[in-house]
Amino acid sequence: MELKGLHHVSAITAVAKDNVRFYTEILGMRLVKKTVNQDDTSMYHLFYADEAGNPGTDLTFFEIKQAARFYQGNNSISFSGLRVKNDKALNYWLDRFKEYGVAHEPIKDLMGRKVIFFKDDEGQRLMLISDEFNNGVESGTPWEHSPVPADVGITGLGPVRLTVPNPGPTSEILTEVLGFRFAGTYPAYEDGQPDIQVYETGEGGTGAEVHVEHRTDLEKERPGRGSVHHVAFRVKDEAELEAWRDKVRKRRLPNSGLVDRYYFKSLYFREPNGILFELATDGPGFATDENLDQLGESLALPPFLEENREEIEANLTPIK
């Protein structure tokens, strides 16, 4: 068994309509699914991705209207990466970020790859990473109706960074349970902190990396709007997911068991530093209940929630 790479990252927003504006109108991603959190149907669950909503391209958000601002710290997913085709694309994004007033840093080097760190309006920590020299997991296809030209558009998820006070147990789960490989290190951005460790899975590359940052100077993060809830990794199918469940159980890691999310099936568990991991199947996908050319245009509910549609819609603020 081998995880194929990143599946999706799920974060928190306080205002769905503003979130949609930023990720579709400024970042040019496609809203491929407008649905609800299946564990709390009073909140939206929004999925932004490439043209077809392929696994490995999804950045998702739960709308928690009462969410306070987050306070950055340890035991967290401290940034999420987004891929672009090449170094030239990053120059386009510098200009676009300036045009729209998006908080960002200059282009930097990260293990021989060009990156731009930036934030959305709620302080969500993000990174654009160039695939100029990427030979790993294949990227997605930018949405043809995006306001961003296709040749510089976002093509999928890049590396995620975990910030932890004790990296040993996290690294052990990544390598001994999930089968990640150690792929190198790079210097921390804060003086006096240990190098950041890089792990990869599957075909490797920007779509299959987890970076582990050891911080000795931070308190535990207080989550809220702008923070990340969990990261999910790609599993081929349900049969393989069952095998992963058995492997997680053998390590006596508390877990959810298999959960049917309708668009994919999932398994959840926390690694020793408290970060929530999800393993999710590649299919059946977002076109299960909507035509490909109409993804995200209306509120989609899985069959087991459909009978409650009227009540669910009454508790949501419409997004146009």
TrEMBL record:
<protein>
    <submittedName>
        <fullName>Glyoxalase family protein</fullName>
    </submittedName>
</protein>
<dbReference type="InterPro" id="IPR029068">
    <property type="entry name" value="Glyas_Bleomycin-R_OHBP_Dase"/>
</dbReference>
<dbReference type="InterPro" id="IPR052537">
    <property type="entry name" value="Extradiol_RC_dioxygenase"/>
</dbReference>
<dbReference type="Pfam" id="PF00903">
    <property type="entry name" value="Glyoxalase"/>
</dbReference>
<dbReference type="InterPro" id="IPR004360">
    <property type="entry name" value="Glyas_Fos-R_dOase_dom"/>
</dbReference>
<dbReference type="InterPro" id="IPR037523">
    <property type="entry name" value="VOC_core"/>
</dbReference>
<feature type="domain" description="VOC">
    <location>
        <begin position="5"/>
        <end position="131"/>
    </location>
</feature>
<feature type="domain" description="VOC">
    <location>
        <begin position="156"/>
        <end position="282"/>
    </location>
</feature>
